[in-house]
Write the structure tokens for this entry.
Amino acid sequence: MQRTKLSATKKEQARSRALCDALGSLGYPGLQSLAEDEEDAVQHDPAVVLLAALSCDHVDERVVEALPWLVMSFENLDWEWIIREARRRSAQNRLGYIVCLALRVSAGAEGSLEQLARLSSVEERLFEYRLDKEDTLCRKVPDAERKWLRDARPAEARQWNLLTDLRAKDLSY
């Protein structure tokens, strides 16, 4: 299905640009060209960037695609804080799906056993807090596409009550 783009507000566009810059400065390959000069680079907390992105209702698709990479790349994330904040923002399903994608990519790339165990543990904890309400993965979705996504989404997205067609195999890292 061809995606219909719903226009983002100026505030949403500014947030997306800031998140793209932050992810680029953290080393995400798809956005590094957007990162500031190394001399002027701001040190971003990956956990804060993750939660900021998950809390948005509409961000650039490149931001969403970078989030599993973020989870995989920074092994010392404060998961207690992240889970608590995700729950406070009702973003635990989004976070759960991002962790699920990171786990699938790590397993396919023969990630370390420690990383796989850590991500599995986080996913299991998040599943305990899973919300029943349907949500999207950080983007506005028109009604016609919502109907299509309910049938076309991957099983994992259905499990997390998310309307998205993003799959681990779609991620290029």
